[in-house]
Specification:
The complex is a heterodimer. Chain A has one domain: Phosphoribosylformylglycinamidine synthase subunit PurS (Mth169, Chain: A). Helices cover 31% and strands 31% of the residues of chain A. Chain A has 2 helices and 3 strands. A 3-stranded antiparallel β-sheet of chain A has the order 2-1-3, covered by helices on one side. The two termini of chain A are 13 Å apart. By secondary structure, chain B is α/β, with parallel strands linked by helices. Helices cover 22% and strands 22% of the residues of chain B. Chain B has a 9-stranded mixed β-sheet, sandwiched between helices. In chain B, helix 1 packs across helix 5. The longest helix of chain B is centred in the last third of the chain and has 15 residues. Chain B is globular and about 45 Å long. The chains are: A alpha+beta, B alpha/beta.
Chain lengths: 81, 258
């Protein structure tokens, strides 16, 4: 079966996020006040062949652990859609 | 026996010829090209060990990323550039190259391995050095010379220098912000694995770290480019002592019993 998966990679809490900080500083200039905790990550979307949803999830998680995220600084959320 | 040094080339590597040229100069001269006097003395440090003459016999070769064995080499350099376009993360794709298995074996057997800039990023992604390099804190690509201090002489890159020596070296990176957790940082300090620190931190690196090594000292990663500071024409010579140390490490490796 064909599955769609979405992996969202973010910097771990406590790891400084200069992109997030820059966006956060820019927002008040546009009139958006009170915004905090801006974190920038990336989302990686793909389709994959697997016998069932659980197998698709396991494969996506294995791919994430080995390549898509660097566990030293990043954490990831894997979703099979 | 002549020492052999391999310079690894990934698709997108762009500093390999600079490294080859610098190492080649080292094998042929006591002082950097482009000047008619010896390299300027570094900060005087008491009890520093005199630096022996460099080998005149090292052979330097480029090694493609598909190479499966490095056992004929006496030192390996992973040069700077943008391996595989730095896509996903710098070094993330390069670490799965065939040559990286060979680099890991070579390192495990005590062979000297130095990763410069993108090479440092590859070494951290490969788990041969701890931590990670993330985007500079100022989100600017940095291209300038910065002062750094030698923090340990245990590494193959700093054996010929003295702790406290101040070098001015070029940096040229967007992702040079060394990051690791507190436990790793404590371990780096306790095991004397911090090789270089910035005097004026340009990128937000934790503890001003510009370069680290493994506990054995044979695997070193650094963001500054010593190979670009080995010729009087460039106006920078402070990389000479670092690469000379590497050449000497290769020489020692070549003289080990097989």
């Amino acid at each position: 079966m064909r599955f769609e998966a979405l992996v969202e990679v973010r910097l771990r809490p406590g790891i400084s996020d200069p992109q997030g900080a820059t966006i956060e500083r820019a927002l008040p200039a546009l009139g958006f006040s009170g915004v905090s905790d801006v974190r920038v990550g990336k989302s990686i979307r793909f389709s994959l062949e697997a016998p069932d949803e659980e197998a698709a999830r396991q494969m996506s998680e294995a791919m994430t652990d080995r390549l898509l995220a660097n566990p030293v600084i990043e954490e990831a959320e894997v979703r099979v859609l | 026996m002549s020492a052999r040094i391999g310079v690894v080339v990934f698709p997108g590597t762009n500093c390999e010829h600079d490294v080859v040229k610098a190492l080649d100069s080292l094998t042929r001269s006591q002082s950097p090209p482009g000047i008619s006097r010896p390299a300027p003395a570094l900060t005087p440090v008491p009890n520093r060990t005199p630096v022996p003459a460099a080998s005149a016999r090292a052979e330097i070769e480029l090694v493609w990323h598909g190479a499966g064995s490095l056992s004929h080499l006496d030192a390996v350099v992973l040069p700077g550039g943008f391996a595989h376009g730095d896509y996903l993360r710098p070094g993330a794709i390069a670490r799965f190259s065939k040559v990286m298995d060979a680099v890991a074996r070579f390192a495990a057997e005590g062979g000297p391995v130095v990763g410069i800039c993108n090479g440092f990023q590859v070494l951290t992604e490969a788990g041969l050095l701890p931590g990670a390099l993330q985007k500079n804190s100022g989100l600017r690509f940095l291209c300038r010379s910065v002062p750094v201090r030698i923090c340990t002489t245990r590494s193959v890159l700093t054996r010929g220098l003295a702790e406290g020596d101040r070098l001015v070296l070029p940096v040229n990176h967007f992702e040079g912000n060394y990051t690791c957790d507190v436990t790793t940082l404590d371990r780096l300090r306790a095991e004397d694995c911090i090789v270089l620190r910035y005097e004026e931190n340009p990128n937000g690196s934790v503890d001003d770290i510009a370069g680290i090594c493994n506990p054995q000292g044979n695997v070193v990663g650094l963001m500054p480019h010593p190979e670009r500071a080995c010729d009087g024409l460039t106006g920078a010579l402070d990389g000479w002592g670092l690469l000379r140390s590497l050449l000497e490490a290769a020489d020692r490796h070549a003289s080990l019993p097989a």
